[in-house]
Design goal:
Pfam families: Glycolytic. By secondary structure, the protein is α/β, with parallel strands linked by helices. The protein is built from 12 helices and 10 strands. The strands form 2 sheets. An 8-stranded parallel β-barrel has the order 1-2-3-6-7-8-9-10, surrounded by 7 helices. α10 packs antiparallel against α11 and α10 packs parallel to α12. The longest helix is centred in the middle third of the chain and has 21 residues. The radius of gyration is 19 Å and the shape is globular.
Length: 363
């Protein structure tokens, strides 16, 4: 017979749930600004900007110092380790800058994906060693939520049972450690959009993966009200010849969530998965207007889909910073509306309509 030993006190549970609710308050989502140093090189190279610490600081600053219009759109910001300890031009530490605006500070805590031996190129995510100590330090330094990304892919042989179970357990272990340290875990089992599979196959795999994740979270006594889920939207593979409508994507996504995600989970913050900025907003809006009961907040945790136009406008130039910040605000406002099912697309003939797909995307 299983016996329950309380994992968290009522006070700990209350704090975790309140943090999660603040992040996904109505119309609010997450700015994922946690790109690693290597990922920033991939963002900077196309616009001709050198990948130095100072340039990364300047770029993050133009996002974090956007005017009060973003305060009603962004509930939380995910930092990379380096960024958490950087400061704005006036010497204010970025984490304090974000907290002072009433936004929640988050931190990426995984150490990247590593090969899972004996599989067809599948992976697991490392970083559990020393995680509790790191979380304790991050909590002291102002972080109240964390992110850990696991990656699965759809092909003839994948995802394997082994990869599904291993990644589910790693996510559950990470979530449990975060909660012990007063940090809300974002659980991110990303199914990559690579491949030519159809919508039905992605929905089936998404359901299997999410069911395994929530079984593991239950086994590890994770307090669901103090968690957020960061899944992929259910979409066909990038090479699938058939193009599905936004409504079909929304219906498949919400159905998969309804079949697997307990109503206790506070919010679902979708990753953009290489969709264009406009596509990510339109699909999020369709998900929120989908005519099925949805017991969770359904919002965004976007990196590229909030930043692509801003990067293109910036190009590393001091004179372009204001224009770049405006582009970021524009996308934040669009996604805030989409999270409420109120977004109306004005067409996507500009940079916002360009695909952000990268094969085998890594952070």
């Amino acid at each position: 017979m299983t016996h329950q030993f309380p994992a968290l006190t009522p006070e700990q549970k209350k704090e975790l749930q309140e943090i999660a609710e603040r992040i996904v308050a109505p119309g609010k989502g997450i700015l994922a600004a946690d790109e690693s140093t290597g990922s920033m090189a991939k963002r900077f190279n196309p616009i001709g900007v050198e990948n130095t610490e100072e340039n990364r600081r300047r770029y993050r600053q133009l996002l974090f110092t956007a005017d009060e219009r973003i305060d009603s759109c962004i509930g939380g910001v995910i930092f990379f380790h380096e960024t958490l300890y950087q400061s704005s031009d006036d010497g204010t530490v970025f984490s304090k800058l974000i907290q002072d605006r009433g936004l929640v500070v988050g931190i990426k805590v995984d150490k990247g994906v590593v090969p899972l031996a004996g599989t067809d190129g599948e992976t697991t995510t490392q970083g559990l060693d020393g995680l509790s100590e790191r979380c304790a330090q991050y909590k002291k330094d102002g972080a109240d939520f964390a992110k850990w990304r696991c990656v699965l892919k759809i092909s003839e042989n994948t995802p394997s049972e082994l990869a599904i179970m291993e990644n589910a357990n790693v996510l559950a272990r990470y979530a449990s450690i975060c909660q012990q340290n007063g940090i809300v875990p974002i659980v991110e089992p990303e199914i990559l959009p690579d491949g030519d599979h159809d919508l039905k196959r992605c929905q089936y795999i998404s359901e299997k993966v999410l069911a395994a994740v929530y079984k593991a979270l239950s086994d590890h006594h994770v307090y669901l009200e103090g968690t957020l889920l960061k899944p992929n939207m259910v979409t066909a593979g990038h090479s699938c010849p058939h193009k599905y409508s936004n409504e079909e994507i929304a219906m498949a996504t919400v159905t998969a969530l309804r079949r697997t995600v307990p109503p206790a989970v506070t919010g679902v913050t979708f990753l953009s998965g290489g969709q264009s900025e406009e596509e990510a907003s339109i699909n999020l809006n369709a998900i929120n207007t989908c005519p099925l009961a949805k017991p969770w907040a359904l919002t965004f945790s976007y990196g590229r889909a909030l930043q692509a136009s801003a990067l293109n406008a910036w190009k590393g130039e001091l004179d372009n910073e204001k224009a770049a910040t405006e582009e970021f605000i524009k996308r934040a406002e669009a996604n805030s509306l989409a999270a409420q099912g109120k977004y109306e697309s004005s067409g996507s003939g500009n940079a916002a309509g360009q695909s952000l797909y990268v094969a085998n995307h890594a952070y």
